[in-house]
Amino acid sequence: MGSDQRLKENLRSRHVTEGPQSAPHRSFLYSMGLTEDQIHQPLIGVATCWSEVAPCNINLDKQAQDVKAGVSAAGGTPREFNTISVTDVIAMGHAGMRASLPSREVIADSVELVMRGHSYDGLVALGACDKTIPGMMMAMLRLNIPSLFIYGGSTLPGVFQNRDVTSQDMFESVGMHSVGDMSDQELDQIERVACPGAGACGAQATANTMAAVSEAIGLALPYSAGTPAVYESRQESNRRAGETVLDLLDASIRPRDIVTREALENAAAVVAATGGSTNAALHLPALAHECGIDFDLFDVVEVFRRTPYLTDLKPGGRYVATDLFAAGGFPLVLKTLLDHGFIHGDALTVTGRTIAENLADVKWNSQQDVVYPADAPITASGGVAGLRGNLAPDGAIVKVAGMKIRTFTGPARVFDSEELCHEAVLTRNYEPGDVLVIRYEGPKGGPGMREMLATTAALAGQGMGTKVAIITDGRFSGATRGFCIGHVGPEAAEGGPIALLEDGDVVSVDVDAGTLSVELTEEELSRRRSLWKPRENDYASGALWKYADQVGPAMRGAVTHPGAAKEKLPYWEV
To answer: Cα Rg for the chain, rounded, in angstroms?
Structure first.
């Protein structure tokens, strides 16, 4: 379609490109080298999270050039801008992790503001780490203009002592080193090779989990989420994405046309099938919230319960993201789920076709053992499970991919911060059978709902990952393995039952029954609740203070505008 015809359809960019009143705006566009024709074409935002803070996003600036070429070839004018990222690996294990989850909100807000402020007509969003992916998709849904998402890709695995390693192995190496199972020299050697270049962590941790979501939910092109960051084939895929956003503009297909309840269930199914990160139980409700759809933790875990676990991926399995890509990528997973009735085939996608139509030509690859068929899965229920009980009335979540133990009962060891628990782990100040409770780490209490990978990986490295349990109102990394229960709600800062625990209280977890409980009477819990006093965090100003003041509960995605309408929100005004 030509730009003249598109203008007749009331492009948003007309506010800054058309008529005598827009002469000042056009002068700025001319100053950046645009031609008259380019100014009057649709203006397409190309948003990236490029920065030098982590390898995850380090090549997104280069990938954006391919997207821009596609936009231009299809008759649009690309306008590139970027936003922040906070990398969980570098933020992990110290106060910096409090900035991670709040960064998701900043990413969504900042992209929204640039798009609104400059009246762009469409958006291609590129992200490649844990919070950039959901943050970008939240912005797309909030704006509800023609948009699609591109995952920047996984890194290649490192090689250490003739085996593939990822960032997960680095954290577990710290635990091995703490008990003398790894020398200083070996630790130095593995840290130099674990992450060989650009791209996100290679296990089915949060980045690759949310990448799978981007395809399953319909906001990304098929196969785009599995291609490693450094593969040249990304160039053509990214260029095609740039062209596709103009097709979406012409067809007036918007993100909220795509992200329905059925699409959200498809997304939850691929998380379960791939043994993905528990963080998806935060991000999927947050995406639903942007659409005005009520889809909370319990809706997510219900899909997890009925979906089989199919992929043998780290951290609980044998393989990494590049192995899945070679086997057939996320479309192979989605096709077997579709063939056996575990996803909705009629859900619309950014191709303009349904997910069933996108997968029509995908053939089963019998020469691989990364993905199992859905009628002969690794386990009949998903790799992530939900829990509820008198210790978690608002729910909790546990990653069970690769775990053989399904129940755990033991005495509580209570810590009021991650640092206190981490110190106890590194000094072996705990006993097998203990339930380590880390509280006041929730969205408000942290603030920021920190991940606990440094602690869980240290336990795994000590060979204790299945001999103790950890329970927290904080989060766990997608690379976590072991008996680790997170997102316990209500959180301690809100006076939830986890705030009332004392050392020695007997805590029980039953994954198959879906329960998390403490052996205390309701009368005893009430007595303790009457004595409980709220705690103040250390932040009296700044972004974390504002986040703690505004954030809602984890079960609804820990969003910072929890009072928004539950019904479908209106389109962004033309």
So the answer is: 23
Q: What are phi and psi of 147, to 5 degrees?
A: -155, 155
What tens digit of pLDDT does each residue of 112-147 get? Answer: 999 999 999 999 999 998 899 999 999 999 999 999
Give rounded-to-5 percent helix, strand, coil for the chain.
40, 15, 45
DSSP letter for 181, please: S
385 and 511 Cβ atoms separated by less than 8 Å = yes
In 297-446, beta strands by DSSP E = 384-389, 392-399, 407-415, 435-438
CB atoms within 10 A of CB 404: 6
Q: Kindly name the residue from 154, 237, 477, 517 that is annotated as catalytic.
A: 477
How buried is residue 112: exposed, middle or buried, by Cβ count under 10 Å (0-12/13-18/19+)? middle
Q: Share the mean pLDDT of the chain.
A: 92
Whether residue 571 has pLDDT greater than 60: no
Q: Which residues make Cβ contacts (< 8 Å) with residue 178, sequence separation at least 6?
A: 426, 458, 461, 462
- Terminal CA-to-CA distance of the chain, rounded, Å? 20
477 is catalytic: yes
Question: pLDDT band at 64, cuts 50/70/90?
Answer: very high
- Tracing tokens 């949310």 back to the chain, one arrives at 210
Whether omega before 315 lies within 30 degrees of 0, making that bond cis, reads: yes
Name the phi and psi angles at 40, rounded to 5.
-95, 0
Tell me the C-alpha distance between 248 and 251, whole Å: 5
Q: What number of CA atoms fall less than 13 Å from residue 135's CA on the CB side?
A: 29
- From its phi and psi, is residue 321 left (phi > 0), alpha (psi between -120 and 50) or beta? alpha
SS3 state of residue 255: helix
- Cβ atoms within 10 Å, residue 265: 23
* DSSP line for 528-566: HHHH------S-SSHHHHHHHHH---GGGT--S-TTS-S
In the structure encoding, which two tokens stand for residue 340, read together?
A: 């056996």
Q: DSSP secondary structure string, 18-60?
A: SSGGGHHHHHHHHHTT--HHHHHSPEEEEEE---SS-GGGTTH
pLDDT digits (tens, 9 = 90+) for 177-234: 888 999 999 999 999 999 999 999 888 889 999 999 999 999 999 999 999 999 999 9
